[in-house]
Amino acid sequence: MTDSISNLLDLMRVSSTAYIAKNLTAPWGVLISEHPHLARFHLVISGSTFIGVAGTDQKEALNKGDIAIIPRGEAHSYSNDEARSSYVSKAYPTAKSIPRFELFEQNSTDTHLLCGYFEISDDTPSAILSLMPNLLIGRASDPNMVKKFEIIVDLAREELLNNTSLSQTTLNRLTEILCVYTIQAWLESTQSENDQIRALADPKTRLVLEEIHQSPAANWSVEIFAQLVGQSRTAFSSQFKLAMGVSPMRYVRQRRIRLSCKMLESGNMSMGEVAFKSGYSDTNAFNRAFKREVGVSPGVIKNRSQKAG
Length: 309
Prior knowledge:
With about 300 residues, this protein is of the alpha+beta class. About 45% of the residues lie in helices and about 20% in strands.
């Protein structure tokens, strides 16, 4: 793995939850409902299945050890037949669901899937997620991954066979690693062809993002960022916008407003306190910036949270 890919992966914090293990006997066809804020995954422990994203003609065959990731949580289906058109609708898994693992029979001819979801930290640039395909496949047959996938899938199978009190935690970590490996393989395959990914992977971009994420309320300027990475203001602004899709100061504003939303939802601070801690000394300036990003005033968000509480 190159340093540039490592830089990108370091910006991401993936937290995986294995939710359900299913034994599937043909015929089967399951449609999973959309969940925009929760990425889903399906790992084939044994057997095979077809998977596709709703509204597209794309269907991918998954075999033992393959993992499918739906990064943006679109509705999707899996079935034993590529041509299948009827499905049973399911809403799982969700972040509030209780995990359920069916007993895995070692010599069964059934297909056995381990399904779940993973959450990506707020520090992950949205540009990375927007660039990902709606269906990301990690292949156990990939020459660069075959040994790693084999070890991890074998460990997952053992956990499902034994199903101890520690299985949930172990399966979470194992599927987390598979998700990271799959994202890594995608980044490596697209980096040479995609200027935006190369810009995102640049150490200068990572340095500035880390500074913003650590102190979004600081008195930032394009000049300060340019000095930090040793570039002219024009060169820095151009590279940052290529990487992130927005200007440096727009990104700062987005981070500040995201921070302020969390404080407003907590309901423990006055509007003046939220504005100040978000980097705005003037409440009117904070209101304008907030409405520009969110579409409503901060007071609306605060009132919604108070009613919900």
